[in-house]
Fold this protein.
Amino acid sequence: MGATEDPISQSSPSQLNTATQDGVNVTTQYPTSDESQGVDVTVTVSPTETEISNISVAISNTDSAFVDFDSFGVTIEPSGAAEVDEELQFRGGEIQRVYRIDSLEVDQSVTITFTTYPRQLQSSNDRLDVAQVNYEYLRNGVQVPDNPPARMTAVADLSSSPVNEAQSLRTTLDGLWVTVGVSILLGLVGIVAAVWMYLNSDSGSGPSRSDISDVADDVEELERRLEAVGQEEAQAEAEDIKEKIEDLKY
């Protein structure tokens, strides 16, 4: 069995994303409590069936985020239940922090916490790979996985980032502009239709002067609304229609 890839699944709306594989749990949280643009990552190793030993956990950057290697913390439960060594390694130009744990029994755990930061926030990045977590260990003398290391990708939900919130607001405003534009267009079409019907009436008994005045007032109101929303081209068209209607009153 080869190395496996298991992206973290989303559990909205809490923005806590969790994956569990072979007794290794990876959780991301965004936004963090200090309201920075960092993503909190928690890696917990805890056997569920039997004791495991010779445990190695390596944490590194991704192409889309970098790890704050000064932010790491380790918690052992219960206290003193395991010996944990850690070191910072440089391999092939890449940095990784490696944790080695002697052994863990069922109901014992080692939790590693750290913070990562997106290299760039983009509106298209609702979900981002923020850390690579590789692990391996022995269980009943058998290597897990059999072709080490196993790989897990920590994925964060960034839908509430300032960039995505701004994009959401822009989309809402764009929708509003479409609604306003359609309403304005329908208003102009109705007014033009009324004028056209009068000018092309065979009977010569078009709308009364009072009716024409009412239409002119409606156009003037529409013109004011167009000016208020910055629709200059449509405003000019409304002004032209209003002048033509005014001519009809004489």
